Amino acid sequence: MARATDVFYFVALLNLAILKVSGVYVCPSTTTILYDMEPCMPSVEGAYPDPPNEDCCFVVRTTEPSCLCSAFSGYKNSPSINERAALTLPRLCGKVVPFNFTCNGDPVPSGVELPRTRKLKLL
């Protein structure tokens, strides 16, 4: 099971990838956001993470990006989180990544198509 700090780091990276400017929105609690993001952990951990499942993608597509950004902006580096996987998760789930956006001063990737990593089977 993922450590709570790893979930914080993952969400911070995720919201770097999906931030957009929106109207005023009342965010759910941090605990609620972390609980909701739990299905995404296998998709962002390790060198060759699994593709996101439907539960993960539902959360990615329906969570207000500005809430993620403000709640988790201080958590960016975790040794168990694959940053590339976290940043591409919105694209893999069909969420459009805005061009030229920042989250608390950090640039957001523009949605450039990145090659997917694959697990290698050793014979």
TrEMBL record:
Residues 27-103 form the Bifunctional inhibitor/plant lipid transfer protein/seed storage helical domain. Pfam families: Tryp_alpha_amyl. Keywords: Membrane, Transmembrane, Transmembrane helix. It comes from the Eukaryota. SMART domains: AAI. CDD domains: AAI_LTSS (cd00010). The chain crosses the membrane at residues 7-26. This is Bifunctional inhibitor/plant lipid transfer protein/seed storage helical domain-containing protein.
